[in-house]
Amino acid sequence: MCDLQSVVFSMACLCMLLGVARPGAGQTQHSFRLESEEFPIGMYSVDSPGAMAQAESLGIDYVHTYGTGRDATEESIRRDLAYLDLAHKYGRSVLFQFQGKAFVNREDGVEAMLRVMGAVKDHPALGFWVFYDEPDGKHTPEQLMPFYKAAKEAVPEIPFAVCHCWSRHFQDYKEVADLNLHDCYPIRHKPFPASKINQMTRFTDRMLAVGLPAVPVNQCFNWQAIGRRNKAKVFRGSPVEELRYPTRAEIRYLCFGGLAQGVRGMFWWSYYWSVRSGYTWLDKEFAPVNREFRQFTRLVAPAHKGDIIESARDSDILMARWKRPTGEYLVAVNDWPLKRDLVRSMGGKVQDAELIPWGSTRKSEAAVRDGKLTVGSAEPWEVFVWRIKIPPRESEAVTVAK
Questions:
Q1: Which domains does the chain have, with CATH numbers?
Q2: How far, in Å, CA of 360 to CA of 378, rounded?
Q3: Tell me, what's the pLDDT at 402?
Q4: In this predicted structure, which of 178-182, 238-242, 395-399 has the lowest mean pLDDT?
Q5: To the nearest whole number, what is the mean pLDDT of the chain?
């Protein structure tokens, strides 16, 4: 975390300590459970009271700061509890970040971690732990194992996560986590639809192949802010003045594309870096898409248990179906940067159906006929969300007519 972000968090903690009452004893513990129907949607670096107050309007239920889990001193734990208190005040849950590298480097690291966990584990705003951010090349799975084992003995019900970039050995950490978060930020200066946003869905494929629940950490910032901080004219191969935020279409692809793969939640990086380039994008572009996505995940809960149509991947389509008491729904994503017709077998899931656009999905020539989905002129990376309306069988129609 940069110095400015440390100052922001310290000032925020002072406000919290002065102005937020501690939740009373006996309140319901919220902690996320992997076996629950909940689909966590969160954002990194929500460091201040103002940012926390904005979270609901952004469609964000889980918040995070790099300022938690830094040490086991009384002062550090007070800051941790203050952040949890503020989240509770605003009805948010916390992805509780440990500074894993620092704890692994300590001789008493396991004991220190357990002191922090013991102090915060019953807080009603606690969601789950993320112990280490991108450990590959810093510490081995063997070095993380004592921490994982100790955490599971002390608080087995709270998931223990590790966050990975697309590194060489991320898959080797399977035995030291209950779920994985994974980050990838592919949107730089190229105009839509040229950015390779499917780098994230390809990374998600790799993470799911590890065999643990996977939670993408997607891009909600403009690389320009980081490039300008470094006083660069060219940053990571892109002209700094041409770097941009994701478009609505790209945000929608990241949301529903991941959902159609079977991810266990969705996080965004990061509030702090997003607003370094202004507040307008979050409010005007990000928020409407993410709120609609959250609405859909609640409609089809458990959202992570969709019926994924794997064969559609052969045609560069991400597709999944949900059959719930609220109705039957289908998501199809054009996983390709070109405008084209989509044609694909439904894999025996649906034979004939009318497809009714849901949410902001545009009306199109789309239907399921003879077990095959057809969509006319799908735009690059376009997402379609439909309610499936299956016509009555001929015999049923005759009965109704009589």
A1: 3-305 (3.20.20.80), 307-394 (2.60.40.1180)
A2: 15
A3: 43
A4: 395-399
A5: 92
